[in-house]
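It would be a great kindness if you could assist me with a short task in structural biology. The matter concerns a single protein, recorded as an amino acid sequence and a row of backbone structure tokens. Could you please explain, in whatever detail you think fit, how the structure tokens follow from the sequence? Thank you for your consideration; the sequence and its tokens are set out here:
___
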Amino acid sequence: MGSGGPGGMGRLSDRNRPKAKLKDVSIRRILFLFKRYWGQLLVIVGLALLAAVMGLIPPLVMKEIIDIAIPQGRVQLLSVMALMLIVLPVLSGVIGVWQNHLNTKVTQGVIRDLGQSLFHNLQRQSMSFFTDARSGEIVQRITGDVQSVQSVVTSIVVSSITQIVIVITTIGILFALDWKLAIISVLILPLFVLPVKKVSKLRKDLRIETQKVRSDITSQLNENFGISGALLTRIFGREKQQEHEFTTMNQKVMDLELRLNLVGRWFGMATSTLGPLGTAIIYIYGGYSVIQGDMTLGSIVAFTAYLGRLYMPVGTLLNLHVEVATALGVFQRIFEYQDMVPDVMDADGACQLGPVAGHVRYKQVSFAYKVGEKGRTGERRKTEKQGGEAESGKQAERGGEAEREKLAERGVVREKVQYALRDITFEAQPGEMVALVGPSGAGKSTLIGMIARLYDPTAGVVEVDGVNVRDVELASLRAQIAYVTQESFLFHATIGDNLRFAQENATREEMEAACRQAYIHDFIVSLPEGYDTMVGERGHRLSGGERQRIAIARAILKRPRILILDEATSHLDSESESYVQAALEELMQGRTTLVIAHRLSTVLAADHILVIEAGSVVERGTHSELLALEGLYARLYSTQFAKAAEEAAKGN
């Protein structure tokens, strides 16, 4: 009778998750990321322009040296001009260092803001999202994808403006030197555009594919080198196979990066050959003009120098287009996560839920797990909210058909709806315990998760003290609830830090009192570092029973009014179970408790037992009443609980 995802249903595939449309990934949106930094950006652009202008002066200095200082023997002028050729690059270098520092500061600020934005939005997602997503994919998008945009966002904001100014200024100087040569130079520029379109799309596609493979690698690393994955790999002797999979993916990344680099190099070669073509034409025509006396030697030297300064920024601007196109694929992945609307969130006008007595009521609750849904995430949430106001599962199903027709008119298509839970009604009075039993995949975990709004029902209402849980703020609702699962999670931190996760300001005395109630204090103080002992990743330095009792102590520290136990004593040996069961009895005192039952002792203590099969309540009553029915519960009891009851009787 294990628990699983929502209703035990299968996962949504990645292709069914709402995607950010490419039209949403615009340069304007990327620039909006810099909104907080416009002041610093203006300084950066100003410094870049100053450095660019200073870079335009040396060719004119060279012209003066060749045409005036040397022919006329003006040593003083020659010395001044030579000194300028030394000073200008030094000043430009100092400006460049300052500009680069500010540039890095702004870029890292944007990366930090973007990462925080993604983390914040992911924290707001419902459990449905995490049931479907791979942890490696999430990590890759927050770290790898965000970091990979650094050079591109810098180029978009700073380089584009600087290079445009250089191009315009240089063209003006060229026309001032010789308008005929300037026209010839400008006519060559359109040739630079030809390679861009094909290269841009190819690089973007390659970058998207590269990021996807990197996500797969991150996922495999997380799975293989976590404690459980590492153990499983060794037990089944799969080291070579896992290494082969990693090598294959790693090689694929290498191949994709090589292709990316090669495409970029071919583009660079195509554009770089056009520069010498223009220079050769200028030397031919300009040389003839010098011979004819129509142009000075200094002018042609300055002209060719400016020509190089013209073609270089033009090539940079065109390559910028390629880099931006490459980055759009990465931004598409980032904005997809940034734009996701949570399935479960505070309603407009949601109120604070004060201390509650713990009266829980489920009224005609149904839950539909949507498969193959396409469309805006916001439409999905809106539809679920509308469906939640239906009076019963059947009404919701009929209403869902009408709603799908409306969505189809707006271009939003639902391909399939699978009901995991149908028309479930029950209540628990303050201090009562309600147990849920049934086969694996019956929907038990989804059902009890609704009280904390880990999932929202598609139809029906869940109430706490007569208040619809959708009408109160999530934080105030969850503050009243503690959750203990069959595999209680501990962070890779100290025992004290894990306890304080429930109450940040908990004192040592409060932690010790909670641990005494959970029958774990004596064990903790027997450790060399006591409450400062590191528990290891996922708490794997501790036994299952020890982890479970620390989790129970953590729940006690929270002082909840409503308690959820999701098979909290399963997979434990008899000795550990006895300690954990004693701790649970302390925890349940005076609290409303919803239990997914697995062990006999928990079922026998329940005030009400619901038997769930295929998403519906098929039997309900007390232990003795359900045995008398000789239905599903009686069969489960005879197969799974009879042996435990016999052992318990012998023990007495």
